[in-house]
């Protein structure tokens, strides 16, 4: 699709130094030569950098992300020396004098863990439903796919708000909400691939040999669904990160003592006229992580889906 | 049609049961902590939450056909009029955003399909990557920061005229635009590669006419589909954006009601959203038939 026009994909084989690489590295060279490989690696590198920083948060910053410091409220980032910025608080402080950098790192940690948990849940749900839909067919397939259509078009945030209003906000509820947000894409694509694969000769051969429908589905068809699952997973993760941030920004997600990127921006919105960094930086962090994932999924799509290579 | 009715019934039941079974006591929420049992009881009688659940459900369902969605716990006003007052503002915002997104997506999408890799194509891809990667509420906050706080061109909050509409509409439009742009660009590219376009060229039809008349006509169907899908994003994005801009619409009311545990209002908003959704999808199905004769013959 549009991805080929991204300037990020380098010209394969453009580097002359690769010519005399040792034999063991030839698979690596082949990989680099494939369409989308470099895009994928750039995205992966960026994402690993951010996720690594978030996971290693306690090593990077010595500030406690939830310790208030009334004497150091709303300090700007270090480059603004005139406004009182210093390298003590590299990215400044928020309205309660808490260190922005450590809050962002710990918040990113929470965001990523929640989004990945939600992703795994929606993957499990979606793949199961997609398999059932594709293998069983008939009326059950129709009902399940109607459900998928419905959720695709219905503003999920309204539903999420109703659920949060009815239950207390907790990490568990949040993960369930995130899981319910993403399953449809998995279900739809898995069903499509299953239907496609079921027409192929190897499935017919397995049927002749007496394999049951479920055995065919799980042993033979599922492995062929894996590339599609990987692509959707990288496509879904940024959406879930944004959704979690949105819920937290609305006050429906992560609750105050725990740092979260959305919650930071909710706090920061009251200082919008005086302290730009409190709302800007957490959003930039989200933008960075979602963009790296989008780049990654662009590359992955080109790598795994040969049909797109001709576009 | 039947499926859609079933859908509304399911949503009504699910929302009602979810609200009543798992939530706290609204009487406790609206009285001081030290309120005596008698006071709590009068509140419950007033809210109708003292009756058994089935009776409450019946009260609720029997009121729906009359447009009676119950009474707000917080405002002590009929829920329907509470929401209805705010519908025009929300519709105005959603509609403006949709128009903005479509105009941008059409211009940039058509130009991008016509001249792939050109600066306008690259600009479109960059803009849609941004719209897709940044949270809508953050885009809203950034717009406020730049255009209200620093430049002072537009008001930051509230609704005081067309100027208040500009920033929220841009924020919502950026959430919807990427999907539109991608669909328009792809279907235009597809249409431009068809044989009948080559034939038209051979006949000496002008390029402008080919692009804007022959190709666009055939790219219209996917566009209608994507507008249908937009609806969900549009309403979702509007809710979040209304909160950012303190814009007096239904989304703002929804969030306030969630925080105040004002169930009748949330219930009504959810159900009304489902109805709007069903209605718009019906319109889209009809539009399909109008646009594509093949579907008309099948049906």
Give the oligomeric state: heterodimer
What is the H-and-E element order of chain A? HHHHHHHHHHH
Radius of gyration of chain B: 24 Å
CATH architecture tag of chain A: Orthogonal Bundle
Number of E-type strands of chain A:
0
Report the total helices of chain A.
11
Q: N- to C-terminal separation of chain A? A: 6 Å
List keywords for this structure.
heterodimer; A: 311 residues; MetI-like fold; 11 helices; globular; B: 299 residues; mainly alpha; 2 domains; 0% strand
Which SSEs are present, and which pair or pack?
The complex is a heterodimer of chains A (311) and B (299).
Chain A: H1 26-33, H2 37-55, H3 57-60, H4 100-136, H5 138-153, H6 156-166, H7 171-198, H8 201-208, H9 213-249, H10 261-268, H11 276-304
Chain B: H1 2-22, H2 26-30, H3 37-47, H4 53-63, H5 79-114, H6 119-133, H7 136-150, H8 162-192, H9 195-202, H10 207-244, H11 250-259, H12 263-291, H13 293-298
Describe the protein's architecture and organization.
The complex is a heterodimer of chains A (311) and B (299). With 311 residues, chain A is mainly α. Chain A has helices spanning 26-33, 37-55, 57-60, 100-136, 138-153, 156-166, 171-198, 201-208, 213-249, 261-268, 276-304. Chain A has one domain: Orthogonal Bundle (MetI-like fold), CATH 1.10.3720.10. Chain A has eleven helices and no strands. With 299 residues, chain B is an all-alpha fold. Chain B contains 13 helices and no strands. In chain B, helix 1 runs antiparallel to helix 12, helix 5 (79-114) packs antiparallel against helix 10 and helix 10 runs parallel beside helix 11 (250-259). The longest helix of chain B is centred in the C-terminal third of the chain and has 38 residues, at 207-244. The chains are: A mainly alpha (311), B mainly alpha (299). The interface between A and B is large, with 44 and 59 residues.
């Amino acid at each position: 699709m549009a991805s080929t026009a991204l300037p990020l994909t380098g010209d394969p084989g453009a580097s002359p130094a690769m010519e005399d690489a040792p034999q063991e590295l030839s698979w690596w060279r082949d990989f680099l030569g494939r369409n989308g490989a470099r895009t994928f690696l750039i995205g992966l590198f960026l994402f690993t950098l951010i996720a690594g920083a978030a996971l290693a948060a306690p090593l990077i910053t010595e500030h406690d992300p939830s310790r208030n410091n009334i004497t150091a409220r709303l300090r700007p980032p270090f480059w603004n020396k005139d406004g009182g910025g210093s390298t003590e608080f590299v990215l400044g402080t928020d309205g309660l004098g808490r260190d922005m950098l450590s809050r962002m790192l710990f918040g990113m940690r929470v965001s990523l863990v929640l989004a990945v948990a939600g992703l795994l849940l929606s993957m499990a749900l979606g793949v199961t439903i997609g398999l059932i839909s594709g293998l069983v067919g008939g009326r059950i397939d129709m009902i399940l796919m109607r459900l998928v259509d419905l959720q695709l078009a219905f503003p999920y945030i309204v539903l999420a708000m109703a659920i949060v209003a009815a239950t207390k906000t907790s990490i568990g509820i949040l993960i369930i909400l995130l899981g319910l947000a993403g399953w449809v894409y998995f279900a739809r694509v898995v069903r499509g691939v299953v239907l496609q694969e079921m027409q192929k000769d190897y499935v017919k051969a397995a049927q002749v040999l007496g394999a049951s429908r479920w055995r065919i589905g799980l042993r033979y068809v599922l492995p062929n669904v894996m590339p599609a699952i990987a692509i959707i997973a990288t496509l879904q993760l940024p959406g879930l990160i944004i959704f979690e941030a949105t819920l937290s920004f609305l006050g429906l997600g992560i609750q105050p003592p725990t740092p979260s990127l959305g919650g930071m921006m909710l706090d920061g919105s009251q200082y919008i006229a005086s302290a730009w960094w409190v709302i800007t930086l957490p959003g930039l962090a989200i933008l960075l992580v979602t963009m790296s994932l989008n780049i990654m999924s662009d590359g992955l799509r080109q790598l795994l889906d040969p049909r797109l290579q001709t576009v | 049609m039947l499926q859609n009715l079933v859908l509304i019934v399911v949503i009504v039941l699910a929302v009602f049961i979810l609200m009543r079974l798992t939530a706290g006591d609204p009487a406790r929420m609206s009285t001081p902590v030290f309120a005596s049992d008698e006071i709590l009881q009068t509140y419950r009688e007033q809210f109708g939450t003292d009756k058994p659940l089935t009776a409450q459900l019946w009260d609720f369902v029997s009121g729906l056909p009359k447009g009676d969605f119950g009474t707000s716990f917080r405002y002590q006003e009929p829920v329907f009029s509470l929401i209805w007052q705010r519908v025009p503002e929300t519709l105005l915002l959603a509609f403006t955003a949709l128009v903005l997104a479509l105009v941008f997506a059409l211009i940039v999408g058509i130009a991008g399909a016509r001249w792939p890799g050109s600066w306008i194509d690259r600009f479109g891809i960059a803009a849609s990557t941004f719209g897709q990667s940044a949270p809508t509420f953050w885009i809203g906050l950034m717009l406020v920061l730049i255009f209200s706080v620093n430049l002072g061109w537009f008001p930051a909050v509230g609704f005081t005229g067309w100027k208040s509409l500009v920033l929220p509409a841009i924020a919502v439009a950026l959430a919807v635009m990427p999907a539109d742009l991608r669909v328009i660009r792809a279907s235009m590219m597809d249409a431009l590669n068809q044989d009948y376009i080559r034939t038209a060229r051979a006949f000496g039809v002008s390029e402008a006419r080919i692009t804007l008349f022959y190709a666009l006509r055939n790219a219209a169907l996917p566009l209608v589909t994507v507008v249908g899908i937009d609806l969900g994003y549009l309403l979702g994005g509007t809710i979040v954006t209304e909160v950012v801009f303190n814009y007096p619409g239904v989304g703002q009311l929804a969030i306030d009601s969630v925080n105040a545990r004002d169930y009748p209002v949330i219930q009504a908003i959810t159900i009304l959203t489902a109805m709007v959704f069903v209605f718009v999808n019906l319109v889209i199905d009809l539009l399909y038939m109008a646009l594509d004769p093949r579907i008309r013959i099948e049906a």
